[in-house]
Specification:
globular, four-stranded antiparallel β-sheet, alpha+beta, Methylamine Dehydrogenase, Chain H, five-stranded antiparallel β-sheet, disordered N terminus, Serine Threonine Protein Phosphatase 5, Tetratricopeptide repeat
Length: 608
């Protein structure tokens, strides 16, 4: 759970789309709550969707220790408990709550705690319910501002909480009393996590991007380390307690040594895409991150390159949770839905196929890796997936990611054909007739690029022989026919540039994307202007320049582009490329928030 969650739902849908949203929600009301099978979505890693709180966003999600229950905290103040197997609503908790921002099960599964806004002078509370009967057993109110995160200690005796009042507080669960309040910063505290042995706590800050490492037994600050270049929105400990991972508003994801605080790995460089939640898989092999751009990203713990990603939420993903068994991953988001996914490494042949296709194409945000694609195709093929067999055969046939081998290609095509795969049958027939190879859909874009490239120049002797065979032709004066200039469409230029930027059906080419964006921007295309600001801010295909980023964002912001307005406000807030000016930052944040930008709304909430 992160502090971003509470604001998201208020601004997650633009005013222009609210009418359609009302119709959609009305439709949802006539449907009984049930788990929607993943096959309807076409996403092999999505196990099921629990419609959840379709009328409002979900700020936080948690799993019980036995994996049988899922709890969610809603922006509308509802705290709900669901049966994970059937998707049935078991309990609705809380009374007259304005919002709920984080939830946590006790280790024994008997209690559920939530950070809530209950209204009134002392309205920020940590509330605890008995799940056997749904009764409120503790209502602990000492925080003076929004409570952004909470967690049970591993022994279940205490709850730690942090908030916008800059404090870390420890509560006694049995007696409902405040044991200690610690304040070591003037910054808001956004997230926290207990170490698996309960001896340490990590808490994160906003303005300075710092990370606090605490002795949880004696409740004393051990050290504060510089973490990220921006707010640190989320944190999670590895199951063995040897490291922890953090995610930031600047989009970066870093892993840290839990003893020394030294940074171990950069999993994601700063990206203009906030990371709202992070988690380790229970076996400790994978790190997961949820982003504003609706992606759930996955890395191997020991690696640095992105290993996979899931997408399926309609709006930003706000929270992730694993049950201890680790077979599934649970996510929630602004769309009000809870989704259950295959945990990394737990999917079947179809999941391996989908992952391999991403590696083969270099589907944004993953980088192309043909060797990894071939490896995954082989794993899926060995488990009987016919499309994987076909694609593996194509890779052997073309020598992509593997050593070229017509024997291996034929073997896999034959196996796929035996399973009724029509493209493999066509390929074998083409091979028998000596015809051209059937091109897999994924490879067609590469074939088109190859055809567009200049053909090799023929040797001189070959050209001479060819000329000798042809009769001489009388010289003719070429007649030049003037052609009317082709009109340039700014939206078409932008869409083409976006394809090169993302590597969508073509090889990712930032230089070509920049060229096309510049042409579109010159014609007044606001999104192209925003993208140019993005490229200059991160140094994608151009030399990094905050001043140039601000220049392009100003152009787009004046055309009412919400993303550009947000980032322009952000640059004024931090003094990037312009002189720091909080009033100017607020002005652009307000414009962006009014246009539906959720980050701008949150930034306004957190500004002094």
């Amino acid at each position: 759970m992160t502090v971003l969650h509470r604001i998201f739902s208020r601004w997650g849908i633009s005013p222009g789309s609210r009418g359609a949203g009302v119709v959609f929600l009305a439709g949802c009301l006539v449907i009984a709550l049930f788990a929607v099978p993943s096959r309807a979505s076409g996403n092999p890693d999505l196990v099921k969707t629990i419609p959840g709180q379709r009328t409002d966003s979900i700020n936080g999600v948690a799993c019980s220790a036995d994996g049988k229950k899922i709890a969610s905290a809603g922006e509308n103040g509802t705290v709900t408990v669901w049966d994970s197997a059937s998707g049935t609503l078991l309990l609705t908790l809380g009374k007259d709550l304005q919002s709920a921002d984080a939830v946590a099960f006790s280790p024994d599964g008997r209690l559920l705690a939530a950070a809530v806004a209950a209204g009134g002078r002392r309205g920020h509370a940590v509330q605890v319910w008995d799940l056997a009967n749904g009764e409120l057993v503790q209502d602990m109110r000492e925080h003076t501002q929004l409570i952004t995160d909470l967690a049970f200690s591993p022994d279940g005796n205490r709850i730690a909480s942090v908030g916008n009042d800059n404090t870390l507080r420890i509560w006694n669960v049995r007696y409902g009393t405040l044991e200690t309040t610690q304040k070591e910063t003037k910054n808001n505290l956004l997230a926290l996590a207990y170490s698996p042995d309960g001896k340490n706590i990590v808490a994160t800050e906003n303005w300075d991007g710092k990370i606090q490492m605490w002795d949880a037994v004696n409740v004393r600050l051990i050290r504060t380390i510089p973490g990220h270049g921006d707010w640190v929105l989320c944190v999670a400990y590895s199951p063995d307690g040897k490291e922890f991972v953090t995610g930031s508003r600047d989009g970066s994801v870093y892993a840290w040594d839990a003893e020394s605080g030294a940074r171990l790995r950069v999993l994601r460089d700063p990206e203009l895409d906030p990371v709202n939640s992070v988690a380790y898989s229970p076996d400790g092999r994978y790190v997961m991150a949820a982003t504003q751009s609706r992606h759930i990203l996955s890395w191997r713990k020991s690696g640095g390159a992105l290993f996979n990603f899931y997408e399926g939420h309609d709006l930003s993903v706000t929270s992730l949770a694993f049950p201890p068994a680790g077979k599934y991953l649970v996510s929630a988001g602004l769309d009000g839905a809870i989704r259950i996914w295959n945990s990394p490494g737990q999917g079947g042949p179809d999941s391996l196929l989908a992952q391999a296709m991403k590696f083969e194409a270099g589907t944004d945000p993953m980088q192309q890796d043909l060797a990894q694609a071939a490896k995954l195709y082989q794993q899926a093929a060995e488990r009987g997936q016919p499309e994987a067999m076909f694609r593996l055969g194509a890779m052997y046939n073309q020598g992509k990611g593997v050593a070229r081998s017509s024997d291996e290609a034929g073997k896999w095509w034959s196996l796929a054909a035996e399973k009724g795969h029509s493209a493999s049958r066509a390929q074998l027939q083409a091979e028998q007739k000596g015809a051209a190879a059937v091109t897999p859909p994924q490879a067609k874009s590469e074939e088109a690029r190859a055809q567009a490239e200049p053909r090799p120049v023929e040797p001189e002797e070959k050209k001479a022989k060819s000329a000798a065979r042809e009769p001489a032709k009388p010289e003719q004066t070429a007649k030049v026919v003037p052609q009317a200039p082709v009109a340039k469409d700014k939206n078409g230029l932008y869409e083409e540039g976006l394809r090169f930027f993302k590597g969508d059906g073509v090889g990712r080419d930032y230089a070509q994307a920049h060229k096309l964006f510049v042409e579109a921007a010159a014609l007044g295309q606001a999104k192209a202007q925003y993208r140019l600001g993005f490229m200059y801010s991160l140094g994608r295909g151009v030399k990094k320049s905050d001043q140039e980023a601000v220049n392009w964002w100003q152009k787009a912001a004046k055309q009412n582009d919400a993303e550009a307005q947000y980032y322009l406000g952000y640059m004024y807030e931090v003094g990037g490329g312009v002189k720091q000016d909080m009033e100017e930052a607020k002005k652009w944040y307000q414009k962006a928030a009014a246009n539906g930008n959720v980050n701008a709304a949150q930034s306004l909430k957190m500004m002094p």
